[in-house]
Amino acid sequence: MKVFFEESQEMQPNEAKIITHPEDQSKWDRIREAMSQMEHELVVIQARNNRNVRIKLSTVAAIVSEERMCGVSVITGERYLLNQRLKYVEQELQEQDTTLVRINNQTIINTRHIGSFSAAEHARVQVNLTDGSSYYVSRFYMKNFRRKL
Predict the structure, then answer these.
(1) pTM
(2) Residues 101-121: pLDDT tens digits?
């Protein structure tokens, strides 16, 4: 099968249109499955040597705002830096991955790595991740957190 790429101003960002011959309609399910299984990656900075590294979004446990940058925690315990503000990271991630959810003004977590959660004071929820870290879901983000779970 040959693959051709074209660009169109009518398309939205992060949108693709696949056109096939009517005889190839039986292959659509395999194409859909292959496209959905593609692993999205995040380019982060390794602090010890200041190099850019690609990590899979599925391994990200939490992204925490640190002034004008973000700290990225991975399930294995490694920490990286991301040279963007949290609000821009959130916008990019909403287009790519639905398992990442913002839980307060400083934190985005991966719902795949939630170990447990429990009620906390002031109508908040404490979320414990499988890497041992814990965060609080603020009341403002509670509705979105429930929707993602």
Answers:
(1) 0.75
(2) 999 999 999 999 999 989 988
